[in-house]
Design brief:
100 residues; mainly alpha
């Protein structure tokens, strides 16, 4: 995990904020505003979609890690061990974003 030390994994470029959610809701044709849909429901929906996508990405990283570990066990190439470590770091970073 030394590559990730000193970096807050939850706060990085690409994070979606409330302003982004409102913009995307409008782009998607969702009514938004005091006389339309309440912000709370749109924000909760966006959070659910984002959490689902983060978990799907984390699972892909876990699959890469698992495959790299299998290759490491079979061939002992340092590249495979490095790939497993990198995939594990990605999984950790993705899941850390859920704890914002």
């Amino acid at each position: 995990m030394e590559l990730l030390e000193g970096k807050d994994l939850r706060e990085s470029e690409g994070s979606v904020n409330q302003e982004d959610i409102i913009r995307m809701a409008r782009e998607a044709g969702l009514a938004y505003g005091s006389d339309e849909k309440p912000l709370g429901s749109v924000t909760r929906f966006a959070a659910l979609v984002a959490a689902h996508e983060r978990e799907a990405c984390a699972k892909v990283c876990e699959e890469v890690e698992s495959r790299a570990e299998e290759l490491w066990d079979k061939f002992a190439y340092p590249e495979d061990q490095g790939m497993a470590s990198g995939a594990r770091q990605c999984t950790t970073a993705i899941r850390a974003r859920s704890k914002q």
